[in-house]
Design goal:
about 260 residues; alpha+beta; 2 domains; 6-stranded mixed sheet; about 15% helix
Length: about 260
């Protein structure tokens, strides 16, 4: 689904859509407000059993997927994705409408990885661990309903005895491999027979917000000849982008700040 921003100066010499954010692009009116946890959408599915509501002050009702981390990616991530900037990766996910799963350092099945850390923890990962402030925020219940759950941080002896399926859920814990601060969740997916990465649709994950490093970014794309589903030429945004809360990394304050914007 696309959100039409208007025609604007449509370039007739373009032969494909392009992502832009310049002076000719319709802007979002914005204001920066105090920090708060985003409202978590209801899970797209209706399971019989639901997780207990989050009440503990050290637990979070949201999970965050960073599009890149402060350390090398798994060798299973394709070169074309590694070559993309964090902003381009996030735009690709939003326009594709899904997140691709890749085999992690643990081995096992491809998985989409997230962190359960709260906002002060997200700020720590960005400020002190080199994470790039580009990502997606999801509802905890929706991720669980989509097959996700927390990983098992296990000692080397137990880790060595795990089979490949169990490795999909495990992270080795020893003095040379201590990633407890990531508070990781995963959504494993079976490999595809065509060797393409399996995907998890955003519609299944209760998208609650975005992390962004650019205050003016609006994920706008120009379709000079109209969209594939018959919409007229013009500027578009993916999904319901105009209502998704965006949390901007303020490099001066070194804090995340909520950006409210409407078209």
């Amino acid at each position: 689904m696309y959100w039409h921003l208007g025609n604007g100066p449509v370039a007739t010499d373009l032969h494909a859509s392009r992502s832009i954010c310049d002076s000719s692009t319709p802007r979002l009116r914005r204001r920066v407000t105090t920090m708060s946890v985003p409202a978590v959408p209801a899970s797209p599915t209706s399971p019989t059993a639901r997780l207990r509501p989050v009440e503990h002050p050290d637990l979070s009702p949201i999970l965050t997927h960073f599009v890149t981390r402060g350390r090398p990616s798994s060798k299973h991530v394709p070169a074309n994705i590694l070559a993309m900037t964090p902003k381009a990766r996030l735009e690709s996910i939003l326009w594709q409408g899904s997140i691709s799963a890749f085999v992690t350092f643990s081995g096992g099945s491809p998985a989409v990885c997230m962190t359960e850390t709260k906002f002060d923890g997200l700020e720590f990962l960005i400020r002190d661990r080199g994470y790039q402030p580009w990502g997606l925020i999801f509802g905890r219940q929706a991720v669980y309903d989509a097959g996700g759950g927390p990983v098992w941080y296990t000692r080397p002896g137990e880790y060595a005895r795990l089979d490949p399926t169990q490795r999909s859920w495990a992270v080795r814990l020893d003095p040379g491999s201590d990633w407890l601060e990531e508070r990781e969740w995963r959504i494993p997916r079976p490999p595809r027979p065509d060797n393409q990465p399996p995907t998890v649709p955003l519609a299944n994950l209760g998208l609650a917000g975005l992390l962004v490093a650019d205050l003016d970014w609006n994920c706008t794309r120009l379709f000079p000849y109209g969209t594939d589903d018959g919409q007229p030429a013009g500027y578009y945004q993916p999904l319901n982008f105009h209502v998704i809360p965006r949390f901007w990394w303020n490099p001066t304050a070194r804090k995340l700040q909520l950006v409210n914007g409407t078209t």
